[in-house]
Structures are given as structure tokens and as C-alpha cells.
Amino acid sequence: MKKKSIWKNEGIQSFIASIICILLGLLIGFIVLLFINAKGAPEAMLRIIQNFFKWNRSEKQIESLGSTLVKTAPLLMCSLSILFSYKAGLFNIGVAGQYVVGACAALFGAYELHWNWVGCIILAAVAGSLWGAISGFLKAYCNVNEVISGIMLNWIALYSTNMILTRYVVSGRKDTPELANNPDYADAIIPNIGLNKLFNNNRYVGLGIIIALVFAFAVWILLSKTKFGYELKATGYNKNAAKYAGMAEKRNVVITLGIGGLIAGIGASLLFLTDFTPWDINQTSVPAMGFNGIAAAFLGGLNPIGSIFSSFFIQHITDGGVNVDLTMYCAQISDLISAIIIYLCSFTGLIKYLLKSGILRKKDLTETNANAEESVKADVKEPENKAVKGGKRK
Question: In the CATH hierarchy, which fold is given to the domain comprising 6-357?
């Protein structure tokens, strides 16, 4: 029995494709820095890659790492939302709006209803799920492309959230108040369960990271090990065949985007219920967290476990971009470099296809040569066999 080459392993191919895309992104980003200011390019790129390693003291490094992990949790959830829908044949670009609605619901539960963190997370999950189900319903029953409806719903979610949360903003400010400063809201903060001590008492680090990791493994199990996950993927591959097999393909479309919205909504609550950042009621663009989730999903090979590492990497370089010297570059340079790297991350599918094609071509060539050698050997042996048989007759 022939051993399967390690290079033909699906996971290895995804890993190699991701590494190639990361290196290409870093290279192109460095070239851009050279064109803008060649003198400071090496230092700027080093700062992007370093992120929290820029600090000299280990305590500060650990604390900064904790902040990166806090923002990685919602990014991972958005990534899971994207890949879950994609496995079912749907491109959930509306994840940004579902994320916004989840943030609105979580903060509304804290400010208006004075619920604790569990109730606020559940409220965010319900809101995100319903928002995602709207796109699913339009797709399944009105034949409206989920990309179109998702983009429209993103902007509706943004401006609706700004209007709803305006009433809780203190006069003279443009963002929502901290939860910890008011005893009526304090119960809405996600507990740290002692994790903050591991990160130099960073008060924002807590249970949210654990919840995101649990969801990653739950999505992997759901898609890979359950009948329901198989039905969702079958619907994505061919909805007509799924319908012929007795599956409720329209229901599956609504459920898929509903679950995707649920994951994204919870992701938003994992950030805003930590008090790490307030909601800016004057923002006019949809938060990048949802769109970065697309890159994290594809960089992770559309695998829930791979998305854990890809989400951390993308958040790492995003935070590192803030450390670029602004005396040499404009304030937007960090976003530009991060965007280039994130954009290149979306080409993992193409790189993986090229790798697979090369391996298959090499395999076909090897098999052709082997068949040719066997044919030559057979031709050589045939006269010998005839000669032996002829000698026996004599």
C-alpha cells in the first residue's frame, strides 16, 4: 500500500497557501512603504510585525497581547459566521450589519433593561439571528441575492444603531458611556474569571475569549460531524439535488444565514460588553470587523480551527499598524498596509488551487512514466517467454 504524500494533505495545502499569501502581502506592503518613504520603510514594517513585542518590559508585552486577544474574539466570531454560511453556498457579506445589530442589542440590554451579561449576549444573539434571517428569507423566497440584501442591511443597521444609542450618550460626548462607571450597567460586563491576572491585570481580558474558542469547535463539529451540517452543505452544493433528496432547501437557506447572524451578533457583544471600546454614534462607515472576518475565514482555509489562528494574525498586524511612525507616514498608512495584507489573504483559495494542480500534474506525469516503464518491461519479457515456450515444444 502506497503512503499518501504529506503535500497532498488538504490541511497542509491550506497552511502553505496561507503562508504564501501572508508573505506576499508583507512584501507588497513593504514596497508601498518604500515608495512613500524609503528611509523609514524597514522600521515601519518591523513595527507592524512586532505589535506587542515593541515593548521592552515583558509585563507590558503580556498586557498588550491581552488587548489583541480581546479584539481577536469578535473577529473570530465574524470569521466563523462567514465560513459557516459559505459552506452552505452563501456569501454572508451582511455579517457586518449583523455584528452592528448585535452590538446595539447588547448595549440596549445593558443601558435600558439593566440586564446582566448573559441576558445581553442572548439579546445580541437573537438580534443578529433575526437580521441574518431577513437576507435568508429574501434569498429563499424572493430570489434576492444575499450579497445585495446584505449590503443594504449593513447600512440600515448602522444608522438605526446610531439613532437608538444616541439617547444614552452623555451631553458633549459622541460615544456611549462605560459600563463599569455606573452600578446599573456593571452587571453587563463579561466576567474575567481570573484570566486578567495572566495578562498583567488587563481588565478587559475575560470569558469572551473562551466563548469564541468554544464556538469555533462547535461550528467544526456541527459542519463535520452532524446530519444537520451535512444537509446544509448539500444544499450549498446543489439546492435542486437537495430538494430532490427530500431536504427543505429554502428552510436551510434561512436557517444558515440566521445562524451566521447569531454568531456575528454574539461576537459584537464579546467586545462591547468588556468596556474595551464604546460605540461612536457619529460613525458613518460600517465597522471593519465584519469585513476583516471575510479575510480571516479564507486565510484560515474556511476551517473553524484554522480561523482561530488567522483571526489572531490579522488582528495582530492590524494592531501593529498603529505603531508606525506618523512623522514619516500619514495616519492612514497603518490601515493601508493592513488592508494590503488582508486583501492578499483572500487569495488563499487560488494559491491552494495552483498547488493542488501542480501536485496532480506531477502525479499524472509520474504515473505515465511508470506505465511506460511497465509497458517496456512487458515488451522485453514477451519475446523471452515465446522463446522459452518454443524450446519446450522442441
Answer: ABC transporter involved in vitamin B12 uptake, BtuC (1.10.3470)
